[in-house]
Design brief:
By secondary structure, the protein is α+β, with helices and mostly antiparallel strands. It contains 6 helices and 8 strands. Pfam families: FDX-ACB, tRNA-synt_2d.
């Protein structure tokens, strides 16, 4: 009946709207709209769009399911339901400002590391990655009973390496009970946005980081 269709339409649109209110932190201030559409297995059908920076983006297609679909699934004629289909890549591109869908198939840690976080509500915007190769150096050090805070180490590395530092990752730490000393190993990934870095250039910066680690934290380089 028309009344049933209207009730299911309201359920569908509320569910979709609530979904994107949770996905987009600023959804309450975003303009959105429902656009009539045509799909093979739903009628009536709609596309859901939001406006960002003056441009409208289609997020998904949806609609009331055709009775033939339900009947072919073994349900009787007194059933009614709705369906939607969406592309996760498109939503992620909008949420994080990712410009090219091909990046989702990248194994480049410069891209992947930007989205390695536990809080899905965290405001993250994609930062362009360099087309030039990475240079990877590890730094291992012994320290006393006081462990270096990784954020302090990150600050030191970025102060010395500047824009050439792409990533700083703590990859290993342990405590040697016999020596009563802690150990940490960091992986430092260097990369330039406009040129290929030379090994000699990176080694000079790395040596400078080692020197300042010893001066600031009193560590012993392993």
């Amino acid at each position: 009946t028309l009344e049933a269709v209207k009730l299911v339409e309201a359920s569908l649109k509320k569910t979709i709207t609530d979904l994107f209110k949770n996905l987009f932190p600023n959804a309450a201030t975003l303009n959105s709209r429902w656009v009539d559409a045509t799909f093979p297995f739903t009628h009536p059908s709609w596309e859901y769009e939001i406006e960002i920076d003056g441009k409208w983006y289609e997020l998904l297609g949806c609609g009331i399911m055709e009775h033939s679909v339900l009947e072919n699934s073994g349900l009787s004629k007194d059933h009614i339901g709705w369906a939607f289909g969406l592309g996760l890549e498109r939503i992620a591109m909008i949420m994080y400002g990712i410009p090219d869908i091909r990046l989702f198939w990248s194994n480049d840690s410069g891209f992947l590391s930007q989205f390695a976080f536990d809080d899905s509500t965290r405001a993250v915007r994609y930062k362009p990655i360099s087309i030039y190769p990475q240079c990877i150096n590890d730094l291992s050090m012994w320290m006393g009973k006081t462990i270096i805070d990784p954020s302090d180490f990150h600050d030191l590395v970025r102060t010395i390496g500047g824009d050439l530092i792409e990533q700083v990752v703590l990859i290993d730490e342990f405590y040697n009970a016999k020596k009563q000393r802690h150990s940490q190993t960091y992986r430092i990934i260097y990369r330039s946005m406009d040129r290929t870095l030379t090994k000699e250039e990176i080694n000079m910066i790395h040596k400078d980081i080692e020197y300042h680690c010893k001066q600031q934290f009193g560590v012993e380089i392993r």
